[in-house]
Amino acid sequence: xxxxxxxxxxxxxxxxxxxxxxxSIAAGGAIVAGSAAAHADSDPAITDLQEWSRYLxxxxxxxPYGVPSEHEKHVVRRYVGWLTASVESSVNFTPLHELDGIxxxxxxxxxxxxxxxxxxxxxxxxxxxxxLVEKPLVFTLDDLKRFPRKNQINFLECAANxxxxxxxxxxxxxxxxxxxxxxxxxxxxxxxxxxxxxGLKTNAKWIMPEGGDASGMNRxxxxxxxxxxxxxxxxxxxxxxxxxxxxxxxxVVPGWEGNMWVKWIRRIEVGDEPWHAxxxxxxxxxxxxxxxxxxxxxxxxxxxxxxNPSPEAPLKHDKGATVITGLAWSxxxxxxxxxxxLDGGRNWHAARVDGPSLDKSxxxxxxxxxxxGAPLLLQSRAVDSTGYIQPxxxxxxxxxxxxxxxxxxxIQTWHVKNGGEVENVEVS
Length: 428
Ligand code: MTE
Ligand code: CO
Known about the structure:
This protein is of the alpha+beta class. It folds into 2 domains: 83-294, Oxidoreductase, molybdopterin-binding domain (Sulfite Oxidase, Chain A, domain 2, Alpha-Beta Complex), CATH 3.90.420; 303-425, Immunoglobulin-like (Sandwich), CATH 2.60.40.650. 15% of the residues lie in helices and 26% in strands. The chain is globular. Cobalt (II) ion binds at residues 112, 158-160, 258-259.
């Protein structure tokens, strides 16, 4: 490259940086001036040659299957010992406060199983369709892969997510209050193709997917949903499902409660009425204040949470440019709008939804502001594409009482204290 050319590029870069600064000031954006100021002559991270620059690094034989940097070892799923009687029928939580964007990495997707992780051998895997069909069928994994495939990014939220918070603030971390959700790109066969191959009888109205794990989990799913957007999925984020997510095949039921997403799926029975299985009678029903239970509450209501700052991710600076970020989702569509408050709901500000806005998928939002260092009461409130507005926890309690552990989509409050420490609280 000629000298002259290089110089003109430098001039362009300077010009565009100046323009950026000017436009971010105009847009009210904060600039990290103080902390980013140069310490070039005194900072050993700049003045000393670092170890990693001095020697050759590991070769391409280092890790045939890549793992995160050793400095990210704390970014893991966690479980709460006292929450369940055994680790086989239990749950661990996605570390939402360590993630960004909308996709959950496969190794960090929360796990919920009722009978442990089934270790299914792919060669012996079978999926049977029987009941009210013209021709009962049994598919191998290879058979499934000969049907046309679809890719879909969908969130899966357990109906019990935030369930511990019904009676007040309990768990001091966004991972534990909201971490029973993940968002994955699934590849699979539309369930409709398989049901059509078997031929539905005219009185078919419901299906009952059943798992091949020790819990043999089953749920009644209405046929209209099965024929709409359900997938028989064998890939997550491009690679084979992880054992804990149902390897080799799971059911994807977009927008509907996680319990219906049967893992290690081995059979689908077609019927003319629901089965009233354990998971839709004694569990996954919402006991109201008057003793009656809401049943078949399939769709996950619109919800959001600020992931940073949050109790496990305090603010580390004392004031100035600050980024608030979080996630919002709805089982009924997309999220056109998220508002954020810094003062417990007195004043709301429009947050910026960034990245893909997909149907029944997590959405990422940001709110950038100039923090004066004073305590904050942070909340986010999402609105979905049907116009539904995420309710407060008190509004939910007024409508449904406090008996349920399921379907708590109330607004979460984080108290940022002097010094940046964050606590799970409620305001009323
Ligand atoms: N499928 C089977 N076969 N067995 C199970 O225990 N748990 C259900 C559902 N599918 C379960 C299952 C519940 S309650 C939830 S929330 C989701 O799987 C969790 O999916 P994940 O482990 O991929 O996060
Ligand atoms: Co669940």
